[in-house]
Amino acid sequence: MTRRYDAIVVGAGFGGMGAAIELKRLGLHDLLILEREDDLGGTWHVNRYPGLAVDIPSPTYSYSFEPNPHWSRLFAPGEELKRYAEHVAKKYGLRPLMRFGVTVTGARWQDDHWQVAAGGETFTARYLVTATGFLSMPRTPDIAGIESFRGEVVHTAAWKPVDLTGKRAGIIGTGATAVQLIPELARAASALTVFQRTPIWVSPKPDHPIPPRVRQLFTRLPFAQRAVRWLGNTILELMMISGVVHYKQLRVANRLAERWCRAHLHRQVRDPDLRRKLTPDYSFGCKRPTFSNDYFRTFTKPHVRLETSAVERIDEGGLVTAAGRTEIDVLVLATGFDLWDTNFPAFEVIGRDGKDLGKWWRHNRFQAYEGMTVPGFPNYLSLNSPYSYSGLSYFTTIECQMTHMRRLFTAMRSRGSTVFEVTQKANDEFLKRMRTKVTQNTVFSLGHCATAHSYYFNHHGEATLLRPTSTTSAHRAAARFPLSHYDFLV
Ligand code: NAP
């Protein structure tokens, strides 16, 4: 007899840990958390590039029930996030439930349980939760000749220490990761060429150290930190609502954000030609904007060059564009993650009657009821599903999902049931409502997004990543969704 766990959680990042904490609270103690990497923390374990920091205010980037009074800065560096993840795992007894270095390759619903295949083993559980993240499959660009490059190549999501002293570096990509990394590379390398395909909206970063006496205050009076968190969440919510979700009604706020970023660029870069190249031609919010106080300024340094011609090929010693060839010693790939080909889902998931989640999403539409459950997939919670991401702090999404789980499992138990499955009707209505909101209100449909190359959009050209509602609405839905939206079976 193979051991049957109460639940298997795939992913030991903040999403998976939040789900495990909730399952334990619900009395499901026989849990197994499977993690591909060699330790916990997800994004904050994998990403170690210089300059890594959270790019929304730290007081909002933690579980509300586990505030961290120790953040050293308003935008804490990556290693503090990793330490916070370790602290949570220890306090909530999660580490003993985790198995590292285990890559799940498939999951199948069999009669009344899930069979999960990983590393030649099969694990069995009544419930399956996938928390594999959106940004977990690093993308290597498909540029001709890349394999022939003789120098060092490093992807930001697989960082290894590189000594850049006296070396010529090239970096491909100007997303949120590159914005943090480029100033650091410029400090170390003798020459740096930045290969940009699409510029990014960057606003000033109101970052500063949190003085020890404020941290002490947060430790002694958690209420004070809750007030700061509330303020931070309110500001983020206003930004998300005005810039993205209610673009139709609040277009002026979106324009103001663009102006704010342009003024920031203007203050740091005097050369109009360079400014033009660094200015996006798509609406603010179509793709993830970011904060930085030294990104634009870096391009004014004499040894830093911005290259905007497309990279045509890479040879053993450099990169070739229409503008010429650039010799480099080190190539940095800040080329992001593959969301829509190798993710959604991150491995094969087969539900009732052989229904294949990945195929179904691709042939129909990317969809999940409340961003979490899918008809035909009993006892399955897919945390990083279409329309799940709510607000700007990932913890908003995580805690909405924990609330949804609480309501769902409590209702299932009170009915003497052990199996839940969302109804087709509830799913269809949710999808229709989300699509209508995206189409009628958001920047994704009403703004100029065609040139943004945004990973928010899938192959069908639909922006199905973010939930197009306020976080208040998302919290309300998680706490009060009609229980008739689920079938409960024994
Ligand atoms: P990204 O936003 O997807 O950016 C990838 C960059 O690589 C883009 O500039 C893209 O250009 C470029 N690129 C990809 N393939 C290319 C090719 N073949 N030729 C030329 N350029 C190419 O990835 P990311 O910067 O890693 O950021 C991903 C997300 O991680 C962010 O949006 C953010 O949500 C998160 N993040 C968070 C933090 C934080 O909180 N601390 C920090 C960093 C990142 P195009 O735009 O033209 O495709």
CATH first level of the largest domain: Alpha Beta
Mean pLDDT: 96
| Heterogens | NADP nicotinamide-adenine-dinucleotide phosphate
Q: What is the third-level CATH name, the topology of the largest domain?
A: FAD/NAD(P)-binding domain
Count of all domains: 2
Could you explain how this protein is built, in words?
With 490 residues, this protein is of the alpha/beta class. It has 2 domains: 4-40 and 94-137 and 338-489, FAD/NAD(P)-binding domain, CATH 3.50.50.60; 146-206 and 250-333, 3-Layer(bba) Sandwich (FAD/NAD(P)-binding domain). 34% of the residues lie in helices and 18% in strands. It has 14 helices and 20 strands. It has helices at residues 14-25, 43-46, 78-91, 176-188, 212-220, 222-245, 251-268, 272-278, 295-298, 357-363, 394-414, 424-441, 443-446, 471-480; strands spanning 4-10, 31-35, 98-100, 104-110, 113-118, 121-130, 152-155, 168-172, 191-195, 202-203, 290-291, 304-307, 311-314, 318-321, 324-327, 330-333, 348-350, 380-382, 419-422, 486-489. The strands form 5 sheets. Strands 1, 2, 3, 4, 5, 6, 17 and 18 form an 8-stranded mixed β-sheet that branches. A hairpin with a 2-residue loop joins strand 14 and strand 15 (324-327). Helix 5 crosses helix 6 (222-245) and helix 6 packs across helix 7. The radius of gyration is 23 Å and the shape is globular. The mean pLDDT is 96. The protein binds NADP nicotinamide-adenine-dinucleotide phosphate. Residues 53-55, 135, 141, 143, 172-178, 180, 197-198, 288, 311, 334-336, 453, 455 line the site of NADP nicotinamide-adenine-dinucleotide phosphate (NAP).
